[in-house]
Amino acid sequence: ERSTAPHVPGPEGSRYGYLWWRLPETLPPGAAALEGTVYSAGAGDQYLFVVPRADLVVVVTGQNYDRHFVGPLGFLVREIVPVLKDLP
Fold it and tell me: Average pLDDT for residues 47-68, to the nearest whole number?
């Protein structure tokens, strides 16, 4: 809990703990399943997401060095949230 607690404000409303980022407190409509999500970010759009409300861990091993940066919240909203809505 202490390592994922927000300590420093980040870009676009995100918050930073100790090596973990937290999503913004205000999430887009329909993204309630992401509440409490934390993630770690690495070079080339590599991410480790922990989504407690869905009992889910998502690992992205990208190599996006030369292309436009894909933000983690945008990735989750576009790729993960639609799948979570289909879960029983």
Answer: 84
Count, residues in the chain: 88
| C-alpha distance from residue 86 to each of 27, 40, 70, 81, 83 (Å) | 19, 26, 24, 9, 5
Mean local confidence (pLDDT), 6-15 = 86
Q: Which residue has tokens 């809505």?
A: 85
Count of C-beta atoms within a 10 Å radius of residue 16: 15
Q: Is 46 helix (H, G, I), strand (E, B) or coil?
A: strand
59 Cβ contact list (under 8 Å, min separation 6): 47, 48, 49
